[in-house]
């Protein structure tokens, strides 16, 4: 629907003309009706033979002599009634508009209903009502995300922070502690502090993606080289779990993307595959490409993920393994950040799992 000022002005003019036309048409119909009835009555009565002293004849003669009064009074009365009716009509519309505006102030799922003459206004108000409902829901969700961020921030930072404070307090209070034990406590404190830094960086990253307008730095990226480098960097972690990583990709596959952000996505997907893979299995990364899109699939053998968990796997702060916690896992933001990055690339990321196989599929447009 066109909501421009010119279209609204045209609609108001049409409504005004319609009411004015109805008013004059009603008045004209009544006048014509009176004249028609008077003509028929006159035509019928003139055929009678009247006696001069007949009371009815005297009355009819009086009417004839004062015809302008007997026709004028009903016509004027009709004009007053019609004018009152059609002046009241805009006020009636105004009452409906005021009631509708009150509903817009506190929008509900109930449709706004106006008289048929205001159908166009009704449609516009219902559009505004639906938009207000959507905005209210978005505001509610944003507020909930903010509250969740605070709660999870407090929860996830508490454990490593408590450990750091505990070990540093112990070092401060124990004067006779051995050098070996001192180094051990300092090493643990440093690890916990670094873990804190990682968690804080994750929180800042997801907040940045949620609240900022991130601009991608597109370039023509050699996807083959990017994934080869990624697998090479993960070799120590793969060896620790006795895993292999097989890369199925043609030589020099290129795509337009933000290389740094896309590497962040692939890093997270491969890291998750390593964490959740069975030992002595193979992780496969496969790249296929057609004229319109590039598809990157991460495939690993691990516990089947239930459908309920798959539906929530890209939610912020959601962890598949709640026992893993923040001591040896992330804050549950990695996949949420990955989804934000892929969405910025106008692509998709999906997850599937069955028969102890887990697949993450990233699809990117080529243009």
From TrEMBL:
It is an enzyme of class 2 (transferase). Residues 152-367 form the Histidine kinase domain. GO terms for biological process: cellular response to phosphate starvation. One of its GO terms (cellular component) is plasma membrane. Gene3D superfamilies: 1.10.287.130, Histidine kinase-like ATPase, C-terminal domain. It catalyses: ATP + protein L-histidine = ADP + protein N-phospho-L-histidine. It is found in: Membrane. Pfam families: HATPase_c, HisKA. Keywords: ATP-binding, Kinase, Membrane, Nucleotide-binding, Phosphoprotein, Transferase, Transmembrane, Transmembrane helix, Two-component regulatory system. PANTHER family: PHOSPHATE REGULON SENSOR PROTEIN PHOR (PTHR45453). This is histidine kinase. The lineage of its organism: Bacteria, Bacillati, Bacillota, Clostridia, Lachnospirales.
């Amino acid at each position: 629907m066109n909501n421009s000022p010119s279209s609204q002005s045209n609609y108001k003019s049409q409504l005004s003309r319609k009411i004015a036309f109805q008013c004059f048409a009603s008045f004209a119909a009544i006048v014509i009706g009176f004249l028609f009835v008077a003509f028929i009555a006159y035509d019928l009565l003139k055929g009678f033979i009247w006696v001069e002293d007949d009371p009815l004849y005297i009355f009819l003669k009086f009417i004839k002599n004062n015809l302008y009064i007997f026709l004028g009074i009903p016509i004027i009365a009709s004009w007053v009634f019609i004018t009152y009716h059609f002046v009241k009509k805009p006020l009636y519309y105004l009452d409906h508009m005021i009631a509708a505006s009150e509903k817009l102030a506190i929008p509900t799922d109930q449709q706004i209903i106006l008289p048929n003459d205001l159908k166009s206004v009704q449609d516009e108000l219902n559009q505004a009502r639906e938009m207000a409902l959507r905005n209210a829901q978005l505001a509610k969700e944003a507020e909930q995300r903010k509250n969740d961020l605070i709660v999870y921030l407090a929860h996830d930072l508490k454990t490593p922070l408590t450990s750091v404070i505990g070990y540093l307090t112990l070092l401060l209070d124990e004067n006779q502690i051995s050098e070996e034990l001192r180094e051990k406590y300092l090493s643990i404190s440093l690890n916990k502090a670094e873990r804190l830094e990682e968690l804080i960086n994750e929180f800042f990253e997801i907040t940045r993606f949620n609240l900022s307008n991130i601009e991608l730095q597109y370039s023509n990226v050699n996807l083959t080289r990017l994934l080869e480098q990624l697998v090479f960097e993960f070799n120590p972690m793969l060896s620790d779990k006795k895993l292999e990583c097989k890369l199925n990709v043609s030589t020099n596959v290129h795509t337009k993307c933000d290389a740094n952000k896309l590497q962040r996505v692939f890093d997270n997907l491969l890291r998750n595959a390593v964490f959740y893979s069975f030992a002595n299995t193979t992780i496969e990364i496969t790249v296929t490409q057609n004229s319109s899109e590039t598809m990157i699939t991460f495939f690993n053998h691990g516990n089947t993920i239930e459908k309920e968990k798959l539906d929530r796997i890209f939610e912020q702060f959601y962890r598949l393994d709640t026992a893993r916690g923040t001591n040896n896992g992330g804050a549950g933001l990695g996949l949420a950040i990955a989804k934000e990055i892929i969405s910025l690339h106008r692509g998709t990321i999906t997850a599937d799992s069955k028969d102890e196989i887990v697949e993450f599929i990233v699809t990117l447009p080529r243009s």
